Amino acid sequence: QVQLVESGGGLVQAGGSLRLSCAASGSFYSINDMGWYRQAPGKQRELVATITNADTTNYADSVKGRFTISRDNAKNTVYLQMNSLRPEDTYVYYCNAGVLLTRYRWDRSVYWGQGTQVTVSS
């Protein structure tokens, strides 16, 4: 059906940078909003950044000015450029996409990636 495949996570030092990628594949009509979320064990999943199909962006206050979300519609891919990383950015990061499966507006669903670990050392 639809799969979101993430890449780019890993271990970095404080102050370093990472770039996460998430590519959508499968059968669908179009992709609407896309975003990145993060979650620690035992805690609620929280919004990091979102981007609409008109390239309107929204960021959590904790990452504003440090992270940048972007998308490449030709590749069905969303990116998260993370700069000036801090130990408190250590989470599992999840890609999210709102997908229109067919031309009919009622035939839509939300998909999540499998998550990728980002660890920032001090």
Describe this structure in words.
There is one protein chain. The protein is elongated and about 50 Å long. β9 and β10 form a beta hairpin. It is an all-beta fold and 122 residues long. The protein is built from no helices and 11 strands. The model has no long low-confidence stretch (mean pLDDT 96). Helices cover 0% and strands 58% of the residues.
Low-confidence stretches: none
Helix-strand category: mainly beta
Distance between the termini: 41 Å
Inertia-based shape: elongated
How many extended strands?
11
Beta content comes to over 45%
- Tell me about the biggest sheet? 7 strands, mixed
- Total helical elements: 0
Helix content: under 10%
**H-E order:** EEEEEEEEEEE
Rg over alpha carbons: 14 Å
| Nearest-integer average pLDDT | 96
Characteristic terms for this protein:
122 residues, 11 strands, 0% helix, 58% strand, elongated
List the helices and strands and how they pair.
Layout: E1 2-7, E2 10-13, E3 18-26, E4 30-39, E5 46-51, E6 57-59, E7 67-72, E8 77-82, E9 91-100, E10 108-112, E11 116-121
Parallel strand pairs: 2-11
Antiparallel strand pairs: 1-3, 3-8, 4-5, 4-9, 5-6, 7-8, 9-10, 9-11
Short description:
This protein is mainly β. Helices cover about 0% and strands about 60% of the residues. The radius of gyration is 14 Å and the shape is elongated.
